[in-house]
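Revision sheet: structure tokens.
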Amino acid sequence: MFIYFFLAFCTLILGTRFTKYRKINYDWLFILLLFIGIFRDVRTGADNAVYSENFSATTMNPDTWSAYTEFEPGFSWIMAFFKTYISQEYVVFMGFIFLIFMLGVNYIIKKESCNTILSLFFLIILLHYTKSFNIMRQSFTLGLFCFILPLVKGTKKGVIGYVLLVILLTFFAHRSLIIMIIPLLFYLKSLKSILYNRKVISIILILSYTMVYMSEFLYSKIPLLVLYLSFLGERYTGYLSTSVNADITVSKLSSLLDVLMGILIIHWYPKEQKDNKFQTFCYASYICSIIVANILGSMSDLFLRISVNLAFCRILYFTYLWHNIRRVRSQKLFRVVICCYGFIIFTNALIKNFGLVVPYINRLF
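Predicted:
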């Protein structure tokens, strides 16, 4: 557990101090994060058992794919190709998946972040780093997604290209990525006016929180959801079908914290954000992530993974707010609140050992 807190405090301190050496400090921190993730042991992370079983059975013959749990055809092909032509060791494949994720993170942070080290801090403190030890297909897909994300701030052709590439990645690597088309809808003038109506969005967030107390109502809608979400594949429709009276759903306390944090940010964002297409996209993604987590997480905690894609953009958005909230008092308050919020989530996840990332075990020592 110490290693994760060490990374969090290092990135916070170096992201807010020693700005003269930020570039070299970022490079060293990024290498350290790579080392920790690539050379972690299979015992660090709950999903490795299933992934290793699929990897063991997989060959270039499609009949061997998804032997124990369903993977998208594209990801299964990558797994088969890697095992056939690169290495038959699962731990090497595991490291490769993490490498792709971090290369994508590195690309988008260097391209879009106003403070690269602080974005690494949010990557860690908001659990995206440790979650990548488990949701490996999703993290692999997010890594690839990072390379196309800058298209959302471009021309109409760029946005169309973004949509087409998201659809391609959705069916090639991970079907949950399709949700990343939703934030684009807020480019429409009518929806953008709603997005930047502080009172309306605050009410929507509060209403979404009430859903965590209405699981019975949501369970009654599962047959309809299964019908319309069949494109997600057997894995997710199976989650839906078996989620009735699930033992574990979204935490009411963590959901409340997310909603309160969202409402505060709604009242803190700078006015000029409206004219920034990229930050509008990130803001819309963040707001949608809270709503989706409250609604789907009310049925089963498994669906919280779908909201992870939307929530990922907050590592860039929170960095933007850290430096661009104009009122000095509001800026200082935001910095204190966001750090407290992050460390509460971070500490709770490590103490409860979500995803079995504690203890951290390295293969080399």
